[in-house]
Amino acid sequence: MATAEQIKTGYINYVLTNDEKPKSVYSFVKKIKISEVDFYEFFASFESIEKVIWVELTVETIDTLQQQEVWNQYSSREKILSFFYSYVEVLKKHRSFIIYTLKESGSQLSTPKVLSGTKTIFENFAENVINDGLESGELADRKFFSKRYKDALWFQFDFILKFWLRDDSAGFEKTDEAIEKGINVTFDLFQHSPIDNLLDYGKFLSRNSKFRERMKF
């Protein structure tokens, strides 16, 4: 009886050896010596295999981090930094396959189809981290804009991934620097700033206009 792991491993080996998808499910299952019924028991298409692998790598990273004792002691900023540092380490083990799955997406602005499931997983994770930060007061709760924080983190996900794919530095040191600078700048924007204090003061004055009238000489 075939397993999902057997199919995924066979598919990865095939595309990395041939630099293309199998011509058909029929030819592929013959090669790895299983039946089409076995294949469709687990996957609807070759594309679904790629999506599942991406999702599993992302879930693996998140689960590993959340099982660490120190995780709940981290700030929201530290949690997102830890995710990206760990995620790149996980992706390194599968770099050739990662490059293969993304090569057709090029520089398109929309999310590559292969990352559709990954985006949902990451955004749910990011939203939970952000909500913790909002509740603790670490992050500024701004009307309308707070709901967009997760979008900014997905932008960083996309940027860091593309940067890593093009990084030719030893040990991908430049990617680590890109993570540090990008996430820190993003969280600086998420946190309270003098502008927030100015807006709060403006709201206070607006709510208490009657006192301003009484204070006129």
Description of the structure:
With 217 residues, the protein is mainly α. The protein folds into 2 domains: 1-43; 45-203, Orthogonal Bundle (Tetracycline Repressor, domain 2), CATH 1.10.357.10. The protein is 71% helix and 0% strand. Helix 4 (46-66) packs parallel to helix 7. It is elongated. The mean pLDDT is 90.
Short description, anyone?
This protein is mostly helical and 217 residues long. The chain has eleven helices and no strands. The longest helix is centred in the first third of the chain and has 21 residues, at 46-66.
Number of helices: 11
Structural class: mainly alpha
Largest sheet features:
none
| CA radius of gyration | 23 Å
> Which geometry do the CA atoms define?
elongated
CATH class call of the largest domain: Mainly Alpha
CATH superfamily heading of the largest domain: Tetracycline Repressor, domain 2
- How many structural domains can be distinguished in the coordinates? 2
Low-confidence stretches: none
Helix amount, in percent?
A: over 70%
Total strand count, please?
A: 0
Order of helices and strands: HHHHHHHHHHH
Essential attributes:
217 residues, single chain, Tetracycline Repressor, domain 2, 71% helix
